[in-house]
Amino acid sequence: MTKVEVINGLELGRSESEAWEDLRKTGSALSSPYFSCEWTRHVSALRNDIRIAVILDERGKINGFLPVQQPKGRIAIPVGGALSDYHGLISRPDYKIDLAQIVRQMKIDRLDFSNIPEEQVSFSAFAQIDHDSHIIDLSLGWPGYLQQRRTRGSYENKRARKRARKLAKDIGPIRLEAWSRKQDIFDKLLNWKRNQYRRTHVPDVFASPWASALVQRVFECRGKGGFGGALFALFAGDELVAANFCLADGEVLHSWFIAHNPEFSRYSPGQVLFEQMIENLAGGSIKQLDLGAGDYRFKTALASFSRPLIAGFVAGCPVASAIRGTEYRLRQMVEALPLGRASLLPGKVMRRIDVYRGLA
Questions:
Q1: Which of 113, 116, 154, 354 is the residue whose CA sits 20 to 30 A from 360?
Q2: pLDDT of residue 225
Q3: Which one has a higher pLDDT value, 219 or 226?
Q4: Any bridge partners for residue 260, and if so which?
Q5: pTM over 0.85
Q6: Which CATH number does 3-132+308-359 carry?
């Protein structure tokens, strides 16, 4: 049987952190900031329910880490809950282990997951659905990126430039403030985002004190080159029209929260902001701008490639498995029916429940 030591998130020491980061370097699937030990450490500073399975071989060498959040009872979710866009096992790409065994050793009845890279073969047997995240490749520079988009038949960049010219003509010259440290811009972005949540009847993650504190904590952590927040702001003249708060780590930037001033909605300021960000970052130290999961048109239009993801659950208890399995079967059954947008309702309900669980 694989040896597992379970520690609290705050017990992650220097030697464990070094082993964690060394394992991340063995495969590109772990390049996202969400796989950094710093992400788990920041969440652990604000929650007391973060547990990490340290997976050891027979000689005591660390083969992997499985960090989870256990907000209530014996059901676990990814660290950060609804704020986590990626999660999974921190290990070598070819490492395979019996996750059900690990879950039982952690005394967990069920581990739910939603955005695990398909490359993580240990999770593949537990997948219920698959979907994609969308990533912009910045390594070829700005001309290379534009050529890549034209080859794929996307004209989103052309449309964004047209909107930018209109915005500049009507309001004032366009200016991007990259890697901003200004608290007032950050506060304005969060206010816009909360208003957007209310308008669209989406759960407000910032209503949760720990989640709000986490986002502020990450903002105060400089992310250029290392883990931390990265704020990009779009101005037209003196007007702040849009902002995008990202997670950064190494060569990867992950778009986390983006919102705009509703007064300028007709200019599609979010798309103009992405256009400015891509041009600013292309060819520099950031090689990928990750847009996350969700088949929104702007993501598929801007992305250079997609990363396959899986969602499902690992059960350590038959009862917990039966309950979640029934939920997924109902979802898949309804989604297969010709009901139009109504067929998406079970998936939306499951995601909303998971958000509330994660914010508890």
A1: 116
A2: 65
A3: 219
A4: 242
A5: yes
A6: 3.40.630
